[in-house]
Specification:
The chain is mainly alpha-helical. 64% of the residues lie in helices and 8% in strands. It has a single domain (7-89), classed as Orthogonal Bundle (Arc Repressor Mutant, subunit A). Strands 1-2 form a two-stranded antiparallel sheet. A hairpin with a 2-residue loop joins strand 1 and strand 2 (58-61). It starts with 6 loop residues before the first helix and ends in a 10-residue tail after the last helix. The mean pLDDT is 90.
Length: 99
């Protein structure tokens, strides 16, 4: 059975692609470059294919990576929308502790 995708890995992937750099993505996400690299390797292992081709300091999307980028963007947008909609229904001051 496949595990659900990790939202942190999706965010890292989309940020790496947008920044065209593991280092710049790491700075934007307040992580180390090593953490981003590990996250990308784990994501590729989870989905079972290469998403990025690393060429020195450059990277390029593979064909599956291009398809996956569209889905990852969509998933992240839907997560942001769900949070925004929930925030309008339940103000943060109304959050109760769950024990």
């Amino acid at each position: 059975m496949n595990r659900p995708l990790d939202s942190r890995q999706l965010l890292a992937f989309v940020t790496v692609v947008r920044c065209q750099s593991f280092t710049r993505a790491a700075k934007e996400l307040h992580l180390t470059q090593s953490a981003i690299s590990h996250s990308m390797r784990a994501l590729e292992r989870d989905v079972g294919c290469r998403l990025l081709e690393r060429k020195g300091r450059r990277m390029e999307l593979t064909e599956p990576g291009g398809h996956f980028l569209q889905k990852a963007d969509q998933i992240l947008r839907e997560m942001e929308q769900a949070r925004a909609e929930l925030d309008t229904v339940v103000p943060m001051s109304g959050v109760a502790s769950v024990a």
